[in-house]
Amino acid sequence: MKRKDWLELLRLVGNINRSLDLQDVLRAILEEIREVTASEAGSVFLLDEEKGELQFYTVSGGAESTLQAYRIPLEKGVVGYVARTGEAVILNDPHQDPRFLRDLEKQTGYTTRNLMAIPLIHKGRRIGVAEVLNHREGPYTAEDLEVFRALGEMAAVAIQNARLYADLERLFRESLRALVAAIDARDPYTAGHSERVAQYALWMGEELSLSREEQHQLELAALFHDIGKISIPDAVLLKAGRLSEEEYHLIQSHPERGVEILRHIRQFEPILPAVRHHHERWDGQGYPDGLAGEEIPLFARIIAYVDTYDALTTDRPYRRGFSPERALQILQENAGTQLDPGLLPVFRRVFPRMAGEDDA
User: Fold this and answer.
1) CB 46 within 8 A of CB 57
2) Sheet of 125-135: strands edge to edge?
3) Which of 31, 42, 88, 258, CA to CA, is 20 to 30 A from 77?
4) For residue 120, which of 163, 149, 143, 77 has the smallest C-alpha distance?
5) How far apart are CA 27 and CA 10, in angstroms?
């Protein structure tokens, strides 16, 4: 391989490894292999060992919407052959090769002039197949295959890293949810509250077109907005009667207590402002810092809406929960005083999902 090709591969590796999200990694891989192999389209198939199939994951420059759920048995097609044998394949006249899946071409309406496929191998284990289609400048060559193989080795590492990260992230999130559920369970009237608030906040984040990372942070902030209540004594937290002034101030300290609990975990640093300020008010009469208007972090303003909505619609010892429609009316009345009026249209758009009307 020429020196310029190695330098190009180093650049490509940097692009592929910018993210640990599997979808982002696969998308980057496909964009780069199309570029470096001068191909019209590319696809990645990941091995599902339990079912003995290759699952189509993504495509670039081809029939993405058609193929999203496509699966190929290992005994079929060029990619099945590559996955079974571990051999790379160049077909510059694929229609003359019995391994070529003509049914797939009919289904997608995409004509394949030539193709190149390589196994994706990580630490001696086959994890999938990468394929490129239709060289823009003629037939695929042995030099194309050499570059493709080198990129495939690096892509396999990136895919496994993303999978490992996804597994760790899943374990992390499940552990967090178990912890939050245990906290909510201290009070039978708030069981499931944090999960609901997190889901409602996420819907509002989606409506606001927040980035994937921002949505993730918003969801975590909403999930942990009441974590500080873990340090509030049951005698105060679960008291059915009127709170004393001292007890009320103790309850009001839970946002600061939450920050104190979470600040020791590096991953929670971006969500600390939302946890601290979710009880601030638009008019500046909230706590703990009396912030007003857009001084209040956006995530805190979002959580204020959904936290209030869930509190209103949940039964309490001293009252039955309001109907969703009545809760919406109360929120509308408080937009501009307690709540950010600019977020009211967003809340109204996701309200049917919160109220369960979308399931009707």
Assistant:
1) yes
2) 71-73, 53-60, 39-48, 125-135, 115-122, 89-91
3) 31
4) 149
5) 17
Per-residue DSSP letter, 2: -
Q: Which residues of the chain have pLDDT under 70?
A: 1-20, 57-69, 107-108, 184-191, 317-318, 357-360
Pick from 196, 205, 197: which is nearest to 346 by CA? 205
Task: Please report the domains of the chain, with CATH numbers, ordered by start residue.
Answer: 3-164 (3.30.450.40), 185-359 (1.10.3210.10)
Q: In which element (H, E) is residue 152 found?
A: helix 142-184
Which residues, at least 6 apart from 10, have a Cβ–Cβ distance to it below 8 Å? none
pLDDT score at 68? 52
Catalytic center residues: 229
C-alpha distances out from residue 106 to 69, 103, 132, Å? 16, 5, 18
Report the pLDDT value the prediction gives residue 232, as an integer from 0 to 100: 83
pLDDT the model gives residue 108 = 66
Contact in structure between 67 and 56 (CB atoms under 8 Å): yes
The answer to whether the beta carbons of residues 251 and 203 sit under 8 Å apart is: no
Question: Which pLDDT does position 152 carry in this prediction?
Answer: 82
Sign, CA torsion 258/263/265/271: positive
- CA proximity to 67, closest of 118, 32, 16, 103: 103
**CA angle 130–135–137, rounded 5-degree value:** 155
